[in-house]
Structure formats: structure tokens, C-alpha cells
Amino acid sequence: MTLDGFEHETAARIVAVNWAVLAEDEGKRLKALGVDEGAEVAIVHRGIFGGRDPLAIRLGRMTIALRRSHARAIEVEPV
């Protein structure tokens, strides 16, 4: 399952990231923030308009905003 379809406030572990679908600079930024295989994440907020963009995710002690297109490139499993 991809991160964009995961349930709100449920802990998940990143099992794979499809770096090929992300622009190079976006991938570098996400890696620098710690978005990579093995990291634990949870969706803490979804946008309220149209496509429900952006998503706010908790990654460790940080909360970061992701576009849904980025979240679709991240495969997760429940913890």
C-alpha cells in the first residue's frame, strides 16, 4: 500500500520508495529529511480541498508536508 492511501494516525514503516517517479531534487530533499526504507511514519493531517493535498506526516519527531504525488511513490506496511 502507498502512503497516500494509508489510514490517519496509524503507524507505518516505509518498505520502498520509487525514486524514479520523483524529480531528482525532490528525492534528495526527501532523503535529507529521513524519508527512506525502514523509517516509521504516520499521517497526521490531510488537506481539506479537492485532492486533499498536502499530507502532513510525522517522521520521527518531525512533522513534514508532502504532496500526494510524493506519498504515492512511498510503499508502506503497518507496524
TrEMBL record:
KW Iron (keyword) present: yes
UniProt keyword terms in alphabetical order: Iron
GO molecular function: transition metal ion binding
InterPro entries for the chain: Fe-transptr_FeoA-like, FeoA, FeoA_core_dom, Transcriptional_repressor_C
SMART domains, sorted: FeoA
Record domain Ferrous iron transporter FeoA-like: where: 1-78
PANTHER family assigned: FE(2+) TRANSPORT PROTEIN A
The protein's name in its UniProt record: Ferrous iron transport protein A
Source organism per UniProt: Erythrobacter mangrovi
